[in-house]
């Protein structure tokens, strides 16, 4: 009788040990499955597929801080292009200026108002002048916030009798703001001012 009880006790211990091992194994398997699922979901969410000309292209999402210099340069370049690209067309000028002012604060609006009051835009229209701008370089200091920038560009001013090339250097700061259709990069130019704007060559037509 004692031997039977001892065997039952031993069998119970073995079953309990086996059950404990199985339970721990199930818990470990569940934890591993949960971890791998979370990793796979995160990996899947980092991919974006774009349909372009009948072809599926894969794009990857990234943190904003990784793209600050690239987005900031394009924001600054876009602002200057809209602000300084002028044609003898009042509606076109207004359209471009409005787009530029969405990308900057009151410092840009102040410069626009000064130019308008001085008759600059009326002169562009009445004299049939076309003006374009090309960036040479855009420096962004992303080490401190708000981000300082300096823009170097060349303006080309086409008049009836001549073509003038003019250097343009401006500076300012960029602060973060919400992205929108009018401001896709989510930056706002502040304290914008012109450091240099002088003729570098004049060519007769």
From TrEMBL:
Q: Could you tell me the keywords of this UniProt record?
A: Membrane, Transmembrane, Transmembrane helix
Taxonomic classification: Bacteria, Pseudomonadati, Bacteroidota, Cytophagia, Cytophagales
Gene encoding this polypeptide?
A: traK
Q: Which NCBIfam families match?
A: Bac_Flav_CT_K
Which ranges does the record mark as transmembrane? 20-38
Q: What is this protein called?
A: Conjugative transposon protein TraK
Is Transmembrane helix given among the entry's keywords?
yes
């Amino acid at each position: 009788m004692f031997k039977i009880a001892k065997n039952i006790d031993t069998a119970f211990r073995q079953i309990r040990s086996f059950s404990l091992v199985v339970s721990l194994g199930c818990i470990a398997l569940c934890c591993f499955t949960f971890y791998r699922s979370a990793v796979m979901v995160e990996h899947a969410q980092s991919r974006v597929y774009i349909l372009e000309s009948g072809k599926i292209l894969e794009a990857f999402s990234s943190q904003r801080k990784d793209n600050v210099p690239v987005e900031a340069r394009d924001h600054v370049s876009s602002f200057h292009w809209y602000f300084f690209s002028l044609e003898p067309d009042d509606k076109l000028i207004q359209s471009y200026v409005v787009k530029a002012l969405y990308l900057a604060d009151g410092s840009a609006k102040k410069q626009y108002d000064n130019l308008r009051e001085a008759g600059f835009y009326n002169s562009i229209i009445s004299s049939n002048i076309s003006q374009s701008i090309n960036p040479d370089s855009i420096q962004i200091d992303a080490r401190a916030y708000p981000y300082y920038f300096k823009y170097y560009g060349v303006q080309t001013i086409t008049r009836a009798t001549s073509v003038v090339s003019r250097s343009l250097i401006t500076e300012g700061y960029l602060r973060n703001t919400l992205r929108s259709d009018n401001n896709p990069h989510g930056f706002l130019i502040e304290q914008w001012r012109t450091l240099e704007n002088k003729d570098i060559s004049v060519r007769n037509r």
